[in-house]
Amino acid sequence: MWKKNMSKLEAAVIIERFLDNESLYPQEWNDFVECKQQDPAVDAIRKRCDQLDPLVNRPGDPDRASTAELSAIVAKLRSDPS
């Protein structure tokens, strides 16, 4: 079962792995974007990632602006992991 009480840092790590094509298993990204989180701040990030999913999780090149936004989300999560 997917972790539903993820920290901001854990969310950042999952997003980074997705961006680097280093997910732990093929459906890790999908599990992340589809599983509601208990922390409202982490869940808001998850929801935004879910909105960006069709633009970044598709055949061919992902949308550059969307991948840049995901990178910015990671930077923000890492700068304020509390």
- The percentage of residues in β strands lies in under 5%
Give the overall shape.
globular
Distance between the termini: 24 Å
Q: Work out the radius of gyration.
A: 12 Å
Element pattern in H and E: HHHH
Low-confidence stretches: none
Key traits:
single chain, 82 residues, mainly alpha, 63% helix, globular
Overview of this protein structure:
It contains four helices and no strands. The model has no long low-confidence stretch (mean pLDDT 94). The chain is an all-alpha fold and 82 residues long. The chain is 63% helix and 0% strand. The chain has a domain at 1-56.
Quick take:
The protein has helices spanning 8-19, 28-34, 40-56, 64-79. By secondary structure, it is an all-alpha fold. It has a domain at 1-56.
Reconstruct the topology from this structure.
Layout: H1 8-19, H2 28-34, H3 40-56, H4 64-79
